[in-house]
Amino acid sequence: MAAEKIPVVPIPGTRGIPMIGLGTFNDFQRRGSNDDVKEAVKIAIDCGYRSFDTAYAYQTELIVGEVINEKIKEGVVKREDVFITTKLWNTHHNPVHVRANFLKSHQNLNCEYVDLYLIHWPFGFEDDATETFPMDDKGYARFSDHDYMDVWTEMEKLVDEGLVKAIGLSNFNKSQIERVLQNCRIKPCNLQIEVHPYLSNKKLIDFCFSKDISVTAYAPLGNPNRSWAKGNEHTIFEEPILKDIAKKKNKSIAQVCLRFLHQRNIIVIPKSVTPHRIKENIDILDFDLSDDEMKAIWSLDKGARVLEEPTVITINKLNVNVSDLIECYSEGPVSCSMAAEKVPVVPITGTRGYPMIGLGTFTIFEKRGSNDEVYEAVKCAIDCGYRSIDCAYVYQNEESVGQAINDKIKEGVVKREDLFITTKLWDTHHNPAHIRENFFKSLNKLNCGYLDLYLVHWPFGFEDGDVCFPMGDDGKARFSDHDYLDVWKEMEKLVDEGLVKAIGLSNFNISQIERVLQNCRIKPANLQIEVHPYLSNKKLIDFCSSKGISVTAYAPLGNPNRTWADSKDPIIFDEPVLKEIAQRKKKTIAQVCLRFLLQRNIIVIPKSVTPQRIKENFDILDFELTDDEMKAIFALDRGKRFYALGIGIGHKYYPFNDEY
Longest C-alpha distance within the chain, in Å? Predict the structure, then answer.
């Protein structure tokens, strides 16, 4: 395709950015050696590409610059024909050194000027670190505290000098862009973000267009070759809708995806080192998608980011995935706020992510917690900013939870897609033949369209039926003999149907989880277990972390109001260590306990029906525990379990026969 046929988006100070370019992100890929990238850029120029996207962090600037200069010498292109974009990396945010760091990229590219220079991310790592991702000996990222507004001021000076034609942003969220717009001298002309059929990013893109900021989509094909992809993940290239459209148009699925973005007026920078794919990716201007086809592709949106595994970092010692900072990072490290967008999320494939602070609703055996109280608690929590609600069939309050959620949706406080709803398959519902039917009992009560996360509540089953705790005349529980692997296979089918976004486990031990992993088609996304200062569960949590399974802590405060408490049981709230830390931090003991778990990268779902406590439990992001304080709380570990469900003892799948 001739380069002149490619539409361009006007960029002040330039000849415009071509709407189809070549991406060169190479750092974590299974394919893409320096020699491969070199050949890819050569082929791309010969095919008609005139836009090339690189970055200091990609370590491909030198190669991109070398090839462009070779093609200029050969007379294939002139410098003014080519649009070169690169980015300022996170270790280069010191305003004093922004110019010097830009010149490193400028020198690598060996071009007279850069057409577009972007701030790669709004947050900074330690200044001028030799590593791309500087980490300390505990695996935490080393941060700088530079304000991206100070960085922007220095970027503007590069435009003044003529070193850069235009400047823009990458991976910024709406509030961050608004802050730049309110304080800038030169307006950002472009935002580069992840966009593909699984992540439409519609609201952010609409906002940019309203401000005359063009948008470039990276990973426009979902980056199927990323090295951190999970083996059981569905890929865009497996979607029947896209296969059907591609067949009808006599095009590849990649071409359909790129055309979809092109018709949304989004610039695309697909990356490839395969010659025929490079040629295919530019050949998207000879067909149109109908309105119905566009709607069909829109319907694939899952809010699913692919920039996940390699870049988990830490804010105030709180592990947060880099991709999620687009949503949760604002002016500096995460600050305490009752706003939902401040709560970090854990990536869960197929969802918009699992908020790390949620509301638990287990009150069936509590001193307080009628269904009416649970209804009011859920409403209060949503008003405070909670977007994750945890419940279960056995809690017997799914209807109250669902009613509260739907009332808040009707009020316009939230939309369904803003919420992350978890419930669980109870032990009397393990018969594989009836799992779908039993799932619908929960879904109908919740009345929420779909579930974000559905868990197998326990690995063992009771006698089939709707009596939650079936007991024999001998006072012992009546068990079923269903294998939890057969249960899991039926859970997987619920994901296939789109009824459930993700599935996981609860109260499973290591050997049971390993057995699921060895036999599953869809990997468990989450394990929910009891964790608090008296029960650290470290070995089990470390195991889950090594397998990419997130962990949710129930009873994170030790459940002091449980009706079955023994008068001799220790009480977390009486611990002098916790009292001292709470006094020093000017926080409650509950807040210290929850922060302890959050800094271990554990999702927390404290339960309460008291408005003040619901608010307090959410307010844990404005302080951090020191290493010594963390060690002091770890020292309280007694292996003390408050939820043993002793009536399950004797079943072959009872999980607590093993230590962990």
Answer: 92
